[in-house]
Design a protein that fits this description.
The chain is of the alpha/beta class. The chain is built from eleven helices and 18 strands. Strands 3, 4, 5, 6, 9, 10, 17 and 18 form an eight-stranded mixed beta sheet that branches. A six-stranded parallel beta sheet has the order 13-12-11-14-15-16, sandwiched between helices.
Length: about 350
């Protein structure tokens, strides 16, 4: 079968040099595994980290990709909940399932956890014509959700749901700041916050502000301005008048990191929460600790989530309450072009790749 393979790293981000469509062996199901076709797969920033070989020296030769949807074509003898013909999507959090964290329902805290398609291999990721995963890492897709939308949702919907619902414990009526609302996780965060009837202030680059509002954001602010936080606080003051509350943000949803972290802390109310799943602009943020201890702020880390949380998000997609935003679709042969587009940030939502004929 065909797959997008690289045999060396590209620290200079020269993807065209390393990404090749090659033939690899078709998978045969282990007793607990499901095999399904690739109808659509989605790009994530960890694909770029993998190709750079930093911060993780991923196994080589490598097939990247953590999000993929398709149709089941074979199941192992111990598989109980899936059959040939089922429409499914990957859950990329590979946990041990037997440690204290896993058996406590915190598979995202498993010390042996791996992100499938990023840390796994060699030659085990989403960008291949057929996929094999343990049954516990596969979810069924609601009939009303397309393969493309399911692939675009797999990791980003899971991450956003876990951040806001699982970690930040979002409640109706809160004021929520979504940093980077034009990203995959940001676009779902806007929708989840509106599902909870919250007031949403999204930030994005100027060309994405209107699209954030179309997704449901009540306000959209250009976070490339040096004083973007002043505009956000001004909005929060107006919202506070209608609620009879103190101005400020109840939940800050962050994956931008270094360049914007401390300014988010200045915006938070007493007892408010900042939840972070990443650091796109860097990890070495300068923090004024007074904002944390004096205001009793909660700073929470968040990585992926549980399969149950993915299923919850997919349920709401099936009800038409959440939707994926697909920016563009490429073939495997266009993998270098697709990843370059992601690196440059000139997209809104998710970038997909498909095998020829999918």
């Amino acid at each position: 079968m065909k797959a997008v393979v690289y045999n060396e790293y590209a620290p200079d981000d020269n993807y065209a040099k390393i990404l090749k469509v090659q033939d690899i062996d078709e998978p045969k199901p282990k007793p607990d595994e499901v095999i399904f076709t690739n109808k659509a797969s989605a790009l994530n920033y960890n694909d770029i980290w993998g190709m750079r070989g930093v911060p993780v020296a991923v196994p080589l030769p490598h097939v990247s990709g953590s999000d993929v949807s398709g149709e089941v074509i074979a199941v192992g003898e111990d598989v109980q909940n899936f059959k040939v013909g089922d429409r499914v999507v990957s859950h990329s959090n590979l946990a041990c399932r037997v440690c204290k964290a896993c058996t406590d329902g915190r598979e995202f805290d498993c010390t042996r956890r791996q992100v499938w398609g990023f840390q796994t291999g060699p030659l085990w990721g989403a960008y291949s014509e057929q996929i094999h995963l343990p049954e516990v890492n596969v979810s069924k897709i609601p009939d009303s959700v397309s393969f493309e939308d399911a692939a675009a949702a797999s990791m980003t919907l899971l991450t956003s749901w876990h951040m806001l619902v699982g970690r930040a414990k979002i409640t109706p009526g809160q004021t929520v700041l979504v940093m980077g609302g034009g990203s995959g996780v940001g676009s779902f965060a806007i929708q989840i916050a509106k599902l909870y009837n919250c007031d949403v202030i999204a930030t994005a680059s100027p060309d994405k502000l209107d699209k954030c509002k179309e997704l449901g954001a009540d306000y959209a602010v250009d976070h490339r301005k040096d004083d973007w936080q002043k505009e956000v606080f001004k909005i929060s003051k107006e919202l506070a008048k209608t609620k009879g509350e103190a101005p400020g943000i109840d939940i800050a949803f962050d994956h931008i990191g270094q360049t914007h972290f401390n300014k988010q802390l200045t915006l938070l109310k007493y007892g408010a929460t900042l939840v972070s799943c990443g650091a796109t602009t860097g990890y070495d943020a300068q923090i004024d600790l007074r904002h944390i201890f004096f205001k009793g702020i909660n700073v929470l880390g968040s990585t992926q989530g549980t399969k149950a949380e993915l299923d919850q998000g997919l349920y709401w997609m099936g009800q038409g309450k959440l939707k994926s935003i697909v920016d563009s679709v490429y073939t495997f042969e266009q993998a270098a072009e697709a990843h370059t587009k992601m690196l440059e940030g000139k997209f809104f939502g998710k970038i997909l790749m498909k095998p020829e004929g999918a």
